Amino acid sequence: MGKYESVLLVSFMGTFFPAFALYHLMTFRVNRNLPPGGKIPHTLTARWSSRLSAAYKRLYPRSRLYQLTMALVVAGLTIALLFVALRVWEQVNGN
Predict the structure, then answer these.
(1) Which spans in the chain are helix H?
(2) Which residues of 38-54 are buried (b: 16+ CB within 10 A; e: fewer)?
């Protein structure tokens, strides 16, 4: 792994782990206010994620935690795409 790949990997880890932790923090905070039969599982699926975001925004309308989490997710995806683009560019150029 080259210097640029290492930088991208460390940058990705710097966005992934905080986003993952914040997602679970939001789930804990929402589940505290839900009845036992209506708890949101901690799985990362689109169905549960959309339910979590709606419930979180309803319960904590002034919190910036959701926006911060989504910004970290977008940054992580951007870094992952840059990593793929770098690998493709290296393959095309024979590096």
Answers:
(1) 3-31, 46-59, 65-92
(2) eebeeeeeeeebeebee
